Every structure is written in structure tokens, then in C-alpha cells.
């Protein structure tokens, strides 16, 4: 199939790492444990598959929505870069810029959405289309979905083994990676946007 001609291990790894940092499922382990205590056993399979499906659907439908409202991918990618930048600052500084409402259900809401496939993740997924091929983004999403499933299955065990200090360090490390990614995403797409206007 023609879509597999664009298959790239490097792109898959990059997409996986970007989405992994944005989803931050490791950093969300304390939240998952808290939801388990509040609502009972979380259905890891249902939550992860739903989150993966939301991301893949938005990858394709999101672009059509953009065309409908007359926004190009580069402009959306720059907007996405700002969102990723804010998420990174939250992770590094330990502050809460985006206020979230209290959860009233488990598994699908709020685990699949918005904890895993939230606004930041969906924005990032679509922003990746400005630089990477669809097949590699989809495989990056699938790998993250598998990882999310494994973490949800063993959330309590992970919290006991890693502890709050380790989780906090991991969150800050991925925050710095995410900050660098947001800057790269902004500069690359801003340059392309300028070129498009010059050529126009």
C-alpha cells in the first residue's frame, strides 16, 4: 500500500515521544490511583482504546474542520506549539494554568477523555501533521495507547514502586523535552508560514 511508503522508524519514535510527553500518563499515575479509589476498578482496555480512537479520528477529521473554517495546518501547528509550551511550563514549574473540573465518572470520562486524549493531546496530534506522515503518527498513537493500557493496569503498583519524588522528577524531565519540542514546532511552522505569504 502507498501509505506504507512513508514508513519511518525515526518519525514513529519522534511522534511517540512527543505524544508520550503530552499525555504524561506516568505523571498522571497519582490521579489514576485516586480515581480508582473513588470509582472502583478502571477498565484499562476500554479507556486506552477509546483514547487511541479519539486521537486517530481527530487526526483526520480535525484537518477537515480546519479547512472548513479556513485555517491552514501551519497556523494550527503554531497554535498547538503555544498549547504544548503552556503544558510544559505546568510540568516544569508545578503550576496549574489550565483549570480542570472534578471528575464525575471513570474509565471513558475522565481517563480516556480528557486525561489521555485531552485538548493538548488532540492539538498536538493535529500539529504533528505539519511535519510527519500520517502512518507514522498513527503508529505513534498506537504505541502510546498500548503504553497507556499497561500503566492503567499497573497504576497502583507503579505508584508504590516509584514514589512521589520519582514521579515529580520524571514530570519535570518530560516537561523540558516538551518545551524544546514546542519551540521547534513553532519555529519550523512560523518559517513555513512566512514563506507561504512571501510566495503568495
UniProtKB/TrEMBL annotation:
Main location: membrane
Topological type in the membrane: Multi-pass membrane protein
Compartmental location: Cell membrane
Alphabetic keyword roster: Cell membrane, Membrane, Transmembrane, Transmembrane helix
Coiled coil location: none
Gene Ontology, cellular component aspect: plasma membrane
Keyword Iron-sulfur annotated: no
Regions that span the bilayer: 12-35, 47-69, 75-93, 135-152, 173-195
PANTHER family cross-referenced by the UniProt entry: UPF0056 MEMBRANE PROTEIN YHCE (PTHR33508)
Entry similarity comment: Belongs to the UPF0056 (MarC) family.
Protein name in UniProt: UPF0056 membrane protein
